[in-house]
Design a protein that fits this description.
The protein is of the alpha/beta class. It has helices at residues 2-19, 41-44, 48-55, 70-79, 100-105, 149-152, 155-158, 164-172, 195-210, 213-216, 262-272, 288-294, 344-350, 403-409, 413-429; strands at 30-36, 58-64, 111-115, 127-129, 137-139, 161-163, 179-183, 219-225, 236-242, 253-255, 357-358, 382-383. Bound molecules: 2-acetamido-2-deoxy-beta-D-glucopyranose (NAG) (5 copies). One of its GO terms (biological process) is phospholipid catabolic process.
Length: 430
């Protein structure tokens, strides 16, 4: 009796949830992203299966991951910073650090995380052998959500962390959320296997989605690697935009705009007029296919030429004692790609710190932890302020041998400030 009452109650809840209308976006109504593991751009781009997928969508040919190893890249994609993280161990990020979930909540946009092989909703352990029959690994380092206390301390949110089997159910029932991050298990994402193995799995999986009319409905699907494989090379990865939101005439094209995982956040903001997190999400380029529809102006950051993105900069999650630094205060004066200011909870959490300096300046400048010898691109802190107007010339080359680009990159107003900080840093270290 009790059980049937519960089922009835659940049924009622589901019915309400299902009837909640989608919040329409300017360029898509649904954004899904599927994450693969650890491959260099130059190898992926030669794989026949991945080449086949590129023909169905848009290749993002200038997409740079944030750092190594895996976990910080996942964290960055939903929080707008990786807070110095330089390892894959279990982490707990304080409740006052907000994420994409807070942004989506602000407009009532539904979201979920789907993780292949996760033993149950909201599972919090570091890893598990799947109980869904595949016998392969689920790992929390490939699940950005569970590391944030602002998600894991909240039962409603935790319940949104589900499995690939739950995804199948949601698709069948026509109850997909409007935003989802999906991570295959350690075999299918290529972590424990090979580029070829994961490419075959991805091709099969993604093609089945591309054939599904319900899934395709005004959906933008980003298939991306988390990071490159070769740490000594700049961290360039293959990312592909697919789905029903891609017009026919864009299929098989290449977009050379500079992107990072922060572009996911700025694209969501731009599409749904969302507020921002006051971190590196502000200033990150919006996927061009969306920017074209909204009239948003992308720009090349000035710091791209010497960019390496192989080592993590200092921060609260860095496990090297000399690289610890407190969580930075968000810049509460930034306007993001959604045309809105900082998200309400984020502001409430940090409102007493309006006088703090911050590394987030809304320019889209990219920072890294250097090359182990020197660091031309470490974050620098300054007073919170609106983003300056950006006038950087285009055509910066990642990991550049392009000395003209490098010189011009450091010639501007912010570049001068950068050298000042660098000077101090060099004195401290050497
Ligand atoms: C995958 O690799 C990890 C080590 O990175 C190992 O612990 C795990 O057992 C492997 N899983 C499978 C299914 O091979
Ligand atoms: C818990 O999550 C729900 C759904 O995201 C949200 O509406 C609510 O404000 C959260 N509660 C707290 C205390 O953060
Ligand atoms: C945010 O939380 C951390 C960890 O609890 C704390 O050190 C920091 O002071 C908090 N920030 C604010 C503005 O309260
Ligand atoms: C990038 O940083 C890595 C350190 O992880 C270093 O091995 C490599 O030489 C650097 N590359 C360049 C071009 O500086
Ligand atoms: C940016 O430029 C616009 C007009 O070109 C101007 O109104 C605005 O004040 C400028 N903002 C800053 C922060 O310089």
């Amino acid at each position: 009796m009790l059980f049937s009452a519960l089922v009835a109650a659940l049924g009622a809840t589901v019915a309400i949830a299902a009837s909640t209308p989608y919040v329409p976006g300017k360029a898509f109504d649904r954004f899904f992203t599927i994450w693969l593991e650890n491959q260099d751009y130059d190898r992926v781009i030669k794989n026949s299966y991945m080449k086949g997928l590129v023909k169905e969508g848009i290749l993002l040919s200038n997409y740079i991951a944030q750092t190594h190893p895996s976990q910080p890249n996942y964290i960055a994609s939903i929080a707008g910073d990786y807070f110095g993280l330089n390892h894959d161990d279990v982490i707990h990020i304080p409740e006052n650090i907000t994420t994409v979930v807070d942004l989506l909540d602000s407009r009532g946009i539904s979201w979920k995380g789907y993780f292949e092989g996760i033993p149950g909703p909201g599972y919090m352990n570091a890893a598990s052998t799947a109980k869904d029959g595949s016998g392969w690994d689920y790992v929390s380092k490939h699940n950005p959500f569970v590391s944030f206390n602002s998600i894991s301390f909240n039962g409603t949110r935790l319940a949104n962390i589900q499995s690939f089997a739950d995804f199948d159910d949601d698709l069948k029932k026509n109850e997909l959320p409007q935003f989802a991050h999906m991570s295959p298990n350690m075999m299918n994402d290529g972590h424990n296997t090979t580029l070829e193995y994961a490419a075959v799995c991805t091709d099969t999986y993604v093609r089945s989605l591309l054939k599904d009319e319900e899934f395709m409905k005004n959906t933008l699907l980003l298939v991306t690697y988390d990071e490159s494989e070769t740490y000594s090379q700049p961290n360039k990865i293959v990312s592909i935009l697919l789905g029903g939101a891609i017009p026919k005439n864009k299929k098989g094209t290449t977009d050379e705009t500079f992107y990072t995982h922060y572009s996911i956040l700025s694209t969501l903001q731009n599409n749904w007029e969302l507020p921002n997190l006051g971190r590196y999400d502000v200033g990150a380029n919006v996927f061009d296919i969306v920017a074209q529809k909204t009239g948003y102006k992308n720009h090349h950051p000035s710091s791209v030429a010497p960019l390496n993105n192989s080592l993590s900069y200092a921060g609260a999650l860095n496990n090297l004692p000399d690289k610890w630094k407190a969580y930075p205060t968000p810049n509460m004066q930034l306007i993001g790609a959604g045309g809105k200011g900082i998200e309400r909870t984020t502001k409430l959490n940090w409102v007493t710190r309006e006088k703090d300096t911050t590394p987030y300046d809304g320019t889209g400048q990219v920072f890294d932890g250097g090359n182990g010898i020197s660091d031309l691109n470490m974050p620098f802190y300054k007073a919170q302020a609106p983003a300056p107007n950006i006038t950087y010339p285009p055509h910066y080359v990642v990991g550049g041998k392009n000395s003209a680009g490098r010189l011009r990159g450091f010639g501007g107003r912010w570049g001068v400030f950068g050298w000042g900080v660098l000077g101090v840093w060099v004195v401290c270290v050497f």
